[in-house]
Amino acid sequence: MLRIENLTAEVEGKPILKGVTLEIPDGEIHAVMGPNGAGKSTLSYALAGREGYEITGGSVLLNGQDLLEMEPEERAASGLFLAFQYPVELPGVGNANFLRTALNAIRRTRGEAEVDAMQFLKLARTRMKELSMPEDMLKRGVNVGFSGGEKKRNEILQMALLQPKIAILDETDSGLDIDALKIVADGVNAMRGPDFSALVITHYQRLLNHIVPDRVHVLADGRIVASGGPELAHRLEAEGYAGVLDEAA
Amino acid sequence: MNIDAPSGNAAAFLQRYAGLADRLPGARVEAVRALRDAAAETLMAGGLPSRRVEAWRYTDLSPMLRAEFREALTAVDGAVALPPARAERRAVFVDGRFRADLSSLDGLDAEALADVVGDVAPRLNTVAAAAQPMVMLNTLLFEDGLVLDVPAGVDAGRLELLSVVSGETASTIHPRHLIRLARGARLVLLETAMSASGARHLHNPVFEIEVAEDAKITHVRVQREAESAYHLAHLGVRVQTGGTYDGFVLNAGGRISRSETHLALLGPRAAAHLNGAQLVADGQLADTTTALDHAAPNCASRQTVKTVLAGRSRGVFQGKILVRREAQKTDGYQMNQALLLSEEAEIDSKPQLEIYADDVKCSHGATAGALDPDSLFYLRARGIPADTARSILVRAFLQEAVEIVEDEVARDALEDAVTGWWNQHGEAA
């Protein structure tokens, strides 16, 4: 269970999150939708612990643990996963090595045995097949020369390997064609279960046709201004943010 | 000249020469004696370069000139711990002297310079220019070296050249290595310079390398001497038509280390790779200086040099490329990049392109910066601890240079040296 309470945060001295309260029970997928500049990406970076996103108030608990006290890597080890809107290219870092280092770092802190290169390769190949990823993506540098869709699939591959308790998908649909969108959605849906929850951050409703959320929240000007079931996303699509925001105000 | 009462900043070296002149190899070979005396005279008159000399502007030799050294002419034959062999053939020099008992040169046309100096005297200072300060110092005092000839069409495989400074006393060694590849010959020369103790020493090797038509040498140098050492190397290289010099220099040790390469591409389709990396920790200075002379048409040169600096350290890159008027269709590329892990680290970078031909393709670039915070966050967000994430990114930065080296064993040696350096200095970075 991820519990965000009255979270406020600023970037370069400018308040962006102005009191976000949100609860995502285990096993549920919630969507956060909102217009540009609402604070969607700030919310995801603040949760993941990126430098420069200063928390000025509120609390975030992941299964009772205080997330805000932790370093980014400790948050990851506790089961938080952020799928980046803009995955970083790391020339000179082999994708396979990167994935295995991350997997073993997390397994170590969970007290699980590390996987060796052979075990890892087997595991990665299975997951990659599910995501229709060519195997040579393991040999290349992390995200280097990947298309937009390949980068997003690489994010989902990381999620599938690291098996987080909660995933934050930050505009994972941006820059994806419909086939890639379906593959990414299938990857997320495959994770669904009592021990997995997700926060799907998106501007558009189309991703939510494929990943059907349990709850939809509308973020505007740093606050959650409306919440509802999946039908709320359809209303936003039909009426636009303006209509829903007017009603909330 | 009165070499019995030397003065100037090279006085200590001249004094040593005065004492050793009759015992150095070639003392009774007139041509060798003449070269040494000429070097002594020039050093007496002009000394070793100060920072007022443009080529030495960023690398101040005065700590080395102030340091006291003792002669290491007497060959030691005691046991010395050597690293595991990386190749079947190995030429081992301990304190500058060839050690036949530790070497294996089966099937190679190789000799110790001290044994054949009379025969090879005409080759001295023909590839390396006598006027170069580090060549001059070496000419004055060279005591031994490797003389290697690879005959036409022969692939000599891999040869390890190992230089170990063993002693607890501060010594200076000045090896002179003469390497010649005849037409179509091949050689992978994997060199390691290391110190068995932490004692201060000066290692001043000079290489004279001749690459004939269609021959190819891969020359990988791993310099990981003690932090108190001075390493001042000079490489002279001449490459003929269709030949290739494929070089990589790793500077990962020494208080002051400078690797200076002067290479000439003398016939069409000759190629040069002058790649390298420098790992510089607190209190150290590392300098990669190259002068590349495109003297013939249709030649290619490639240069990628990466410097990682930690603590209060300095890095220097000086890369000159001369494209002569006759060197049409030259294809040149130069890139030097520095990664500064500390705010007290400093890099001086001086690319210098001089182009007189009008139909050439020459590009160059230089960057300097800290670790990218976005990359660091990306790794940490995947559960990778901050220190491991930094290590991954530093290695990735170096990887782009190291992966250019095609020879697997040489690449392993470079990667091991990087690992060793990072284990020692990474935490402080």
Main beta sheet strand tally, sense and closure of chain A:
6 strands, mixed
Count of discrete domains of chain B: 1
Shape of chain B: globular
Q: Spell out the CATH superfamily of chain A.
A: P-loop containing nucleotide triphosphate hydrolases
CATH class of chain A: Alpha Beta
Numbering strands along the chain, what is their spatial order in the largest sheet of chain A?
6-9-10-3-11-12
Helix content of chain A: 25-40%
Radius of gyration of chain A, whole Å: 18 Å
Structural class of chain B: alpha/beta
Number of strands of chain B: 21
Measured as a percent range, the helix fraction of chain B is 10-25%
Count of helical stretches of chain B: 8
Walk me through this protein's architecture.
The complex is a heterodimer of chains A (249) and B (429). Chain A has 249 residues and is α/β, with parallel strands linked by helices. Helix content of chain A is 39%, strand content 29%. Chain A has one domain: P-loop containing nucleotide triphosphate hydrolases (Rossmann fold). In chain A, the strands form three sheets. A six-stranded mixed sheet of chain A has the order 6-9-10-3-11-12, with helices on both faces. A four-stranded antiparallel sheet of chain A has the order 2-1-4-5. In chain A, α5 runs parallel beside α6. Chain B has one domain (11-370). In chain B, 21% of the residues lie in helices and 38% in strands. Chain B has helices at residues 11-20, 30-46, 62-66, 113-120, 133-141, 373-380, 386-402, 408-425; strands spanning 89-94, 97-98, 109-112, 146-150, 155-165, 171-173, 176-181, 186-195, 201-203, 206-211, 216-224, 230-239, 244-251, 256-265, 271-280, 285-294, 300-309, 314-323, 331-340, 346-355, 361-369. The N and C termini of chain B lie far apart (51 Å). The model of chain B has no long low-confidence stretch (mean pLDDT 94). Chains A and B meet through α2, β7 and α3 of A and α6 and α7 of B.
